[in-house]
Predict the structure.
Amino acid sequence: MKHKFVAFLVCFGSITAASWAQEATSGRMGVDLGVGTNGIGLDLAVALNDRFVVKGGFTMLPFSFHTASNEIEGLDNVKAAFENGLFKPVESFLSAYGLPTSWEKMPHTSDLTVKPGLTNGRILVDYHPSANHGFHLTAGAYIGESSLLKVGGGYPNGFKEVVKKINDLRAEFSNFGIPEITIDPPVVNGVSVDSEKDNYRLDADIKINAVKPYLGIGFGRSIPNRRVGVQFELGVMYTGTPKVTSTNPDLEKALNKEKGEDFDFSTYSPFLQFYPVISLKLTGKIF
């Protein structure tokens, strides 16, 4: 990722230097701030002449979705033991070990986080068929993260340690009838996933190309004739053939399983190769 970003800077620097060489004839620069389906973006624009404008900048989607309300399966016996007072005789030991002393304090919900991975630098060229109108064609590339979407899920932090300590306490005080905590492995697309391999985490990533070609059409100028302007653009980014990966081999196998019981990623993959970009920008002329 680091060398790709360096390559982007070198490439944009070369283009900007060439643009400055023509500054005597063009004499225009601008800055654009936009928002759209590709996130928020900031660009520096340099006019090569009346028809061509080179832009370089970045976009990012600084949003994520998080929930922690999914009940962990396999803890019914523990819940019943707390409610029936089976942990009462060893409550002092639970406190001494820093363990939960009631079902409400017991971690029993899994979390899920969904985060877009579309953070990119970009180099684009606007072409105006008519020097007197704002209609333009745009071509270029987005260069950045090789991830479309990151999904992370699993049991809460420290859950594994709590389970181990309670089971150790059960073995030490076997006469109190403390139940053993057993965690049934989740089943995804009919595949049993061993979540202990990643410390009870189930993370996945939809991988795409790091370099993503872009084509679009728009109205408005990146460098307005007046001090401030507005630009609208509609385009598409080619992301390549997406693939689901995971640090957990069982989960990766399950998510890529064809005709799975829950879903078949291969049916969605073709629709993810082209990412629609709709953006609205506030443009400003520097000079």
About this structure: The first strand starts at residue 29 and ends at 36. The longest helix spans residues 2-21. Confidence is low (pLDDT under 50) at residues 12-25. The helical segments are 2-21, 23-26, 76-83, 91-96, 159-172, 249-255, 265-268.
